[in-house]
């Protein structure tokens, strides 16, 4: 820790030194007026910037400006919201008047998948987020850039685990049992690995939200598509950019348990120590990131290369990673600019210290009067490697867990692709694309011989080595034809063929019984378990293949009427023999009423509607085949021999989940583009949902089959509203509101009427777990009812405990008993109903501010800490939550009930940035900006647990159908302060 | 116009590229780490491995989630009390003890699955072997028929009105049969299979269904015929027992505990055993289920921390005479118990017998009446919610050698010769309650236990003797029902209606097969 701060101080000094070195620079002054090209009216608050620098100004009330320009400056960049930007040669003039044409916003390029489109022409639901709108601060995962920025898109991570991924849910639940994560496309690579791209290298992210936009991705589009476009070099002078950032991170909320004397006063036992286990487990996490990029180009060649380094230490001791990423792209034009060839190469290597999330649970309940280390004279000192332990079930010294044991992995990822486009004529382009991705994960874990937790003690040390390799290749051919007819009809057509091949393989070995801890997981041959036949070894390999044909037509009639239609035909090796191919059509229409009706008060009023069919592929290979595999050993003729039995049933009808989707939207802009926004409604139906069912044996060989029987319905509303305002010269502000309304999805059916297979009305699942609460289902799936229902006994909220000390459950069915099956009821819902993002940014000359609030509302969370650790009587054995004092007379054991399902609405000051751009620059620099950022400054919530973020996936078999369970092994959430600098030269 | 032609050609070219591009339209799955019927079930070894699946289904019988739970914990022998934060598990354990289980109790579900996984595997293999027509598998078919009858006997005993499914090609979910019909089916199947299976015992036939296995099953079926079908079959039961006794294959071991040792495969008394193994055939976890969390691990040097759950009901422990060799002796303040018995109780010591075991967290052992020194009491203070950590005598019948792993090596005796002697005795006594032969058979078993002979047999002392001898061998519930005392009250269990003799058909089964009919009472 000390070392880190020292490092930080030096680093900061360097930055300050650069910042305050001032050089005398020769300057001259230019004046002029900025007007609307059509009307000639002056434009107030237009930006004028000396190109490649940060020095600039804003026009005043009369549209005039007055700007000091350094010698050597050659051009001015002039921009105004809602108008096309212009670049003006300065030459020797001292007065420059500029006329701007309206329409910049509507000409903004939107990535639509296999192509781009102008914003005005888009008829599906597509949101484009540019770099300047990304979330700032300690962002190590590309999806975090979008958190709260896109209406309908929920991005959540239950805790601040630096190695934990974000769960992404676009427009709520879109599939029954297949993958819920949207398809990620990075520079045209379908299924791109998010770990292969550093957030600093991303230029824009486009989100395809509705079926009409996503249908061109066929069997992978049902959960939406996220298109990531990385930065590229541009023709012109070469640029060097350095960004550096240091972040300090601390846990923001902790479970509220007793500490020290309070614990004893509340009835706990004094074991002689006084330890706040959270303090032992947690630290100030530090993150440093460095990004260096070089870019540039000529009219025929452009390039960009970048290197990123991230060193992250989480708020829990022994968690973090260290990542190096390099990325390069090169574009070359040839054959009279008819041929364009570009290459991309990215390589990422990450060393991760995964740590042990279980430690959070035990830090909460381990006795605060226990010492960390046992008295060396105690007879149990050696047994547990010196750590204080208590022989109880599911109860471990958290410091021992993280200090005695090791859990690490190295992840390597390479991604390369090459693209060639040839303009046969000015209207017709044919293209070819090839991509190769490969990632390797090397996992190692060692549980010490002295570790009470994890069975290390009993197995005399235990090591795991695991290696997984994923690779995929993609080959694509495309033809694109663009033509304008009669000056007012733009016609675009494209056709494509795509072939993608995936291969997964892995190897795992686990063994115990070591003589020494010295090897950790690096010398499995030293494990006696293998000699004794007790070691475990496994390996796997499987492949799959996807073949697709697709086409799309776009029409734009006079910028008034727009139409898009697409069709994709997908075949997958994973589908059953009778269902190898699927067809995914889409059509969408739009009309700009502002132009059609000549409504002068609106700059845009585009009504659009779309219909699309998308699919979700089966998530495993070989599911459609009857397979056999080894089971337990069988005693035959005096020795044990393998037994082989079925591990699956043949299912020739296995196919994709089909989602049909209707989307209606209204895009609007008025007040000279000061106000912009859109309003959308969508309704989806997912049929052929894939779910694992028990099936009758006979006629099946295996008792479970994945079948296409589920159907869910889902709908929602989305609103985006932005206002761009001016506060006079050099001063502007923007307020953007994004709101989402998710209607709770309905489970139409999860049964097959023909075969009778299914849940037959309802099924409960998602077990609470050990200790003492196995066989405690938490969630109910109910056909015809809403998804996400918590299901359990109801405790009388006014009188939770009976006189005899037992839980006072409500006799729901009125039969005189209080805790039978029929007394269970719906006691909450884990799906959120609303999301709100409110972004306010100010540019005040050299200063910039950004404040971003994010809230999610309407969801319940099951606080499992309370369900387990709120019984006051338990304090004799382990620490309990202070809220146990609310039910002092309870003598019953902890038991899950309505009491533990809490409203988890929250509003969070999610992100705040203040930046300063130097006005006078040292020679050679084109921009210097320093900033400070805070993430998660405060959270307003009534939720008693650590983090009120919605939970979208449970680690039980119900997975995404059991949202809202806040499990005990969740990494705590954090608050982060970052300081950084951007240098351009 | 020339230009336009060029467009057309280019477009045609592009189409051609797309349609005939690398011609990869092959969507067959490639298999690397799995086998299908296309490349398996060819060699003798592969066919034997297929047969194995019918036997490995047996390993679930003693698991913490299945059949042993409904047979033992529901009887008056055993109890799994809720010990503070441990073993509440949504009430499934105390439901079993109090006879308040419901169709969602996962031990009931697990038991159904145990029975029908076995049945279905046998059905599948009979079908597959018949289809393959390989002469190598001919002897397996009768064996599978016999094994299926054994699974059915368990299903008949616990769920009663279950579907009779033998045709693997049937696509309709099967309809249930009445308990009497299932009884008749099991009888017929056993009689059919007996001539088809080997007469050998031990050696290559160990752990496999042989003639004596099926005759013991038949004896058990007949002994309970009145419960199962309404008509007693005492003479038929006695007849089967006689065949087993007169075969000369079995004899009482001089030491009762030889039958339950970790290396009990040589027992002369075990007729059919499931050959558990710590590595190859896992699933017998009694050392984990029953031992105290601290002392159990120290006394037997277990490789994992035991779960401190299952224990015997005090009245049942007390039904043994103090000098009954089967009971065992408690540990004391002077040293550990030197006499192995069905039960483990009293003061607990480490493996060397020199270090008194302490629950050194006074916080957790605080409610135990004896405090930190671990003293397992036969007394259980309450069923729930706060039974002592040290409450209840533990099951020590199956040997725990030092270094026992979570999965034990002891083979589980499904059928044992002493049981056949007691069954014969009962069958005789039922026909003639003054039968001297019956009395002599019971006293043969008592004699080995080192206790005085009975002078006469009564329903009470016969049931009690069966209980003591056959403790934790999954017979107690069946015996209590046959003797008509299942509905009686015992410790922490009220008197209940007779219909609780059968467990409910699991709710998930009725959902997936609407033809099933729920048993009375549920």
UniProtKB/TrEMBL annotation, chain A:
Keywords: Cell outer membrane, Membrane, Signal, TonB box, Transmembrane, Transmembrane beta strand, Transport. Its main location: membrane. Gene3D superfamilies: Carboxypeptidase-like, regulatory domain, TonB-dependent receptor, beta-barrel domain, TonB-dependent receptor, plug domain. It comes from the Bacteria. It is a multi-pass membrane protein. InterPro entries: Beta-barrel_TonB, Beta-barrel_TonB_sf, CarboxyPept-like_regulatory, Plug_dom, Plug_dom_sf, TonB-dep_OMP_SusC/RagA, TonB-dep_OMP_SusC/RagA_CS, TonB-dep_rcpt-like. Pfam families: CarbopepD_reg_2, Plug, TonB_dep_Rec_b-barrel. Residues 415-937 form the TonB-dependent receptor-like beta-barrel domain. SUPFAM superfamilies: Carboxypeptidase regulatory domain-like (SSF49464), Porins (SSF56935). The keyword Transmembrane applies. GO terms for cellular component: cell outer membrane. Residues 1-26 form the signal peptide. It is found in: Cell outer membrane. Residues 119-225 form the TonB-dependent receptor plug domain. Belongs to the TonB-dependent receptor family. This is SusC/RagA family TonB-linked outer membrane protein. The lineage of its organism: Bacteria, Pseudomonadati, Bacteroidota, Saprospiria, Saprospirales.
């Amino acid at each position: 820790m000390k070392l880190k701060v020292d490092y930080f101080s030096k680093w900061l000094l360097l930055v300050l030194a650069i910042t305050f070195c001032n050089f005398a620079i020769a300057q001259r002054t230019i004046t002029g007026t900025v007007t609307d090209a059509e009307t000639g009216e002056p434009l107030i608050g237009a930006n004028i910037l000396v190109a490649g620098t940060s020095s600039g100004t804003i026009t005043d009330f009369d549209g005039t400006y007055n700007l000091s320009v350094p010698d050597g400056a050659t051009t001015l960049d002039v921009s105004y919201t809602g108008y096309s930007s212009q670049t003006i040669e300065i030459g020797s003039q001292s007065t420059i008047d500029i006329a701007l044409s309206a329409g910049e916003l509507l000409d903004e390029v939107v990535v639509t998948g296999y192509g781009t489109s102008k914003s005005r022409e888009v008829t599906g639901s597509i949101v484009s987020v540019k770099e300047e709108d990304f979330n700032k601060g300690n962002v190590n995962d590309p999806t975090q850039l979008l958190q709260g920025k896109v209406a309908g898109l929920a991005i959540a991570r239950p805790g601040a685990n630096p190695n934990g991924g974000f769960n992404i849910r676009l427009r709520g639940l879109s599939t029954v049992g297949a993958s819920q994560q949207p398809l990620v496309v990075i520079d045209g690579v379908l299924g791109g690995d998010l770990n292969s791209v550093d957030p600093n290298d991303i230029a824009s992210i486009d989100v395809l939200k509705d079926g009409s936009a996503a249908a061109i991705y066929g069997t992978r589009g049902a959960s939406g598509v996220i298109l990531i476009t990385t930065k590229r070099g541009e023709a012109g002078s070469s640029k060097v950019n350095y960004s550096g950032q240091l972040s300090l991170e601390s846990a923001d909320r902790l479970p509220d348990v007793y500490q020290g004397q309070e614990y004893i006063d509340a009835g706990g036992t004094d074991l002689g120590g006084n330890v706040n286990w959270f303090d032992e487990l947690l630290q100030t996490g530090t993150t440093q990131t460095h990004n260096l990029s070089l870019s540039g180009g000529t009219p025929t060649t452009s390039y960009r290369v970048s290197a990123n380094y991230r060193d992250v230490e989480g708020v829990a001791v022994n968690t973090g990673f260290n990542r190096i990423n390099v990325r390069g792209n090169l574009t070359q034009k040839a054959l009279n600019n008819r041929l364009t060839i570009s290459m991309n190469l990215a390589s990422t290597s990450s060393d991760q210290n995964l740590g042990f999330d279980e430690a959070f649970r035990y830090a909460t309940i381990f006795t605060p009067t226990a010492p960390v280390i046992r008295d060396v004279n105690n007879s149990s000192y050696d047994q547990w490697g010196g750590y204080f332990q208590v022989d109880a079930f599911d109860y471990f010294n958290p410091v021992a867990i993280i200090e005695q044991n090791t859990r690490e992995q190295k992840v390597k990822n390479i991604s390369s692709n090459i693209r060639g486009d040839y303009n046969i004529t000015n209207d017709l382009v044919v293209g070819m694309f090839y991509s190769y991705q490969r990632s390797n994960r090397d996992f190692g874990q060692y549980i010490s011989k002295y570790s009470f937790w994890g069975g290390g003690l009993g197995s005399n040390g235990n090591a795991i080595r695991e290696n997984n390799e994923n690779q995929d290749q993609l080959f694509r051919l495309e033809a694109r034809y663009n033509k304008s007819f009669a000056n007012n009809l733009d016609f675009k057509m494209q056709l494509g063929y795509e072939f993608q091949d995936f291969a997964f393989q892995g190897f795992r070995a686990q063994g115990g019984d070591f003589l020494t801890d010295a090897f950790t997981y690096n010398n499995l041959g030293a494990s006696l378990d293998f000699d004794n036949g007790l070691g475990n070894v496994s390996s796997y390999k499987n492949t799959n293949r996807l073949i697709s044909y697709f086409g799309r037509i776009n029409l734009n009639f006079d910028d008034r009427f727009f139409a898009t239609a697409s069709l994709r035909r997908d075949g997958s090796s994973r589908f059953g023999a009778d269902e190898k191919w699927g067809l995914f059509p889409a059509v969408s229409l739009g009309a700009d009423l502002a132009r059609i009706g000549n409504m002068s008060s609106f700059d845009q009023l585009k009504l659009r509607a779309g219909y699309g069919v998308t699919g979700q592929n089966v998530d495993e290979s070989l599911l459609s085949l009857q397979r056999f595999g080894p089971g337990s050993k069988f005693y035959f003729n005096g020795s044990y021999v393998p037994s082989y039995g079925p591990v699956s049933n043949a299912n020739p009808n296995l196919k994709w989940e089909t989602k049909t989707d209707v989307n209606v939207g209204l895009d609007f802009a008025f007040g000279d583009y000061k106000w912009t926004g859109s309003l959308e409604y969508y309704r989806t139906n997912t049929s052929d949902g894939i779910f694992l069912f028990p099936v009758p044996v006979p006629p099946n060989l295996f008792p479970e089959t994945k079948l296409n029987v589920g159907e869910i319905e889902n709908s929602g509303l989305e609103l985006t509203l932005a206002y761009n305002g001016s506060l006079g010269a050099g001063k502007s502000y923007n307020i953007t509101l994004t709101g989402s309304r998710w209607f709770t999805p309905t489970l139409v059916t999860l049964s097959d009427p023909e075969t009778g297979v299914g849940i037959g009305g309802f099924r409960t699942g998602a077990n609470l777990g050990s200790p003492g609460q196995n066989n405690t289902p938490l969630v109910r799936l109910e056909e015809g009812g809403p998804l996400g229902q918590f299901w359990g006994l109801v405790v009388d909220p006014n009188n939770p405990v009976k006189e005899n000390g037992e839980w006072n459950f409500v006799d729901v069915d009125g039969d005189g008993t209080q805790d039978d099956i029929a007394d269970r009821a719906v006691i909450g819902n884990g799906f959120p109903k609303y999301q709100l993002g409110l972004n306010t940014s100010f540019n005040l000359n050299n200063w910039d501010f950004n404040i971003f609030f994010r809230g999610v509302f309407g969801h319940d969370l099951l606080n499992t800490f309370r369900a387990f650790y709120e019984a006051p009587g338990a304090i004799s054995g382990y620490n309990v939550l202070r809220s146990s004092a609310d039910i002092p007379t309870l003598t019953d054991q902890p038991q899950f009930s309505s009491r533990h399902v809490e409203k988890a609405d929250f509003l969070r000051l999610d992100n705040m940035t203040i930046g300063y751009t130097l006005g006078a620059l040292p020679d050679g620099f084109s921009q210097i900006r320093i900033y400070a950022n805070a993430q998660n400054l405060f959270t307003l919530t009534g939720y008693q647990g650590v983090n009120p973020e919605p939970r979208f996936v449970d680690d039980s078999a119900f997975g995404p159908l059991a949202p809202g369970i806040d499990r005990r092994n969740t990494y705590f959430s954090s608050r982060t302060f970052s300081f950084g600098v951007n240098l351009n030269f | 116009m020339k230009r336009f032609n060029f467009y057309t050609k280019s477009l045609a070219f592009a189409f051609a590229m797309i349609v005939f591009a690398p011609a990869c339209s092959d969507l067959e799955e490639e298999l690397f780490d799995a086998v299908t019927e296309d490349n398996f079930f060819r060699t003798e070894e592969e066919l034997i491995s297929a047969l194995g699946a019918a036997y490995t289904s047996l390993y679930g019988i003693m698991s913490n989630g299945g059949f042993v739970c409904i047979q033992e914990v529901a009887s008056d022998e055993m109890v799994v009390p809720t010990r503070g934060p441990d073993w509440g598990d949504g009430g499934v354990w105390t439901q079993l003890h109090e006879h308040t289980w419901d169709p969602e109790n996962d031990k009931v579900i697990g038991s159904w699955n145990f029975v029908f996984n076995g049945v279905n595997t046998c059905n599948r293999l009979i079908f597959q072997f018949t289809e393959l027509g390989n002469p190598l598998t001919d002897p397996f078919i009768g064996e599978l028929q016999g094994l299926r009858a054994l699974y059915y006997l368990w299903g008949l005993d616990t769920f009663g009105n279950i579907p009779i499914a033998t045709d693997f090609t049937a696509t309709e979910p099967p309809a249930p049969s009445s308990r009497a019909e299932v009884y008749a089916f099991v009888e017929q199947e056993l009689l059919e299979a007996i001539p088809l299976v080997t007469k050998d015992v031990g050696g290559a036939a160990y752990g496999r269904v042989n003639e004596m296995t099926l005759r013991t099953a038949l004896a058990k079926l007949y002994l309970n015929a009145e419960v199962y079908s309404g008509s007693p079959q005492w003479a038929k039961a006695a007849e089967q027992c006689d065949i087993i006794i007169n075969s000369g294959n079995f004899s009482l071991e001089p030491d009762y505990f030889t039958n339950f040792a970790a290396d009990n495969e040589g027992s002369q008394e075990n007729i059919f055993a499931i050959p558990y193994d710590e590595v190859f055939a896992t699933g017998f976890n009694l050392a984990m289920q029953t031992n105290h969390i601290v002392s159990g691990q120290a006394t037997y040097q277990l490789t994992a921390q035991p779960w401190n759950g299952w224990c015997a009901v005090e009245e049942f422990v007390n039904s043994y005479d103090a000098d009954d060799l089967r009971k065992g002796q408690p540990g004391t303040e002077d040293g550990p118990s030197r006499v192995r018995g069905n039960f483990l109780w009293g003061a607990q010591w480490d493996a060397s017998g020199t270090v008194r075991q302490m629950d050194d967290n006074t916080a957790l052992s605080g409610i135990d009446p004896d405090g930190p020194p671990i003293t397992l009491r036969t007394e259980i203070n309450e069923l729930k919610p706060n039974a002592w950590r040290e409450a209840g005598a533990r099951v020590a019948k199956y040997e725990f050698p030092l270094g026992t792993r979570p999965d034990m090596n002891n083979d589980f005796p499904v059928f044992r010769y002493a049981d056949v002697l007691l069954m014969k005795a009962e069958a005789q006594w039922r026909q003639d309650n003054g039968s001297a032969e019956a009395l002599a058979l019971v006293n043969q078993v008592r004699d080995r236990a080192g206790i005085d002979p009975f002078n006469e047999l009564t329903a009470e002392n016969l049931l009690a003797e069966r209980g003591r001898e056959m403790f934790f061998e999954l017979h107690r519930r069946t015996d209590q029902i046959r003797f008509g005392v299942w509905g009686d009250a015992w410790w922490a269990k009220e008197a209940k209606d007779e219909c609780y003799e059968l467990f409910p058909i699991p709710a998930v089964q009725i959902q997936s097969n609407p033809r099933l009919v729920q048993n009375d009472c549920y």
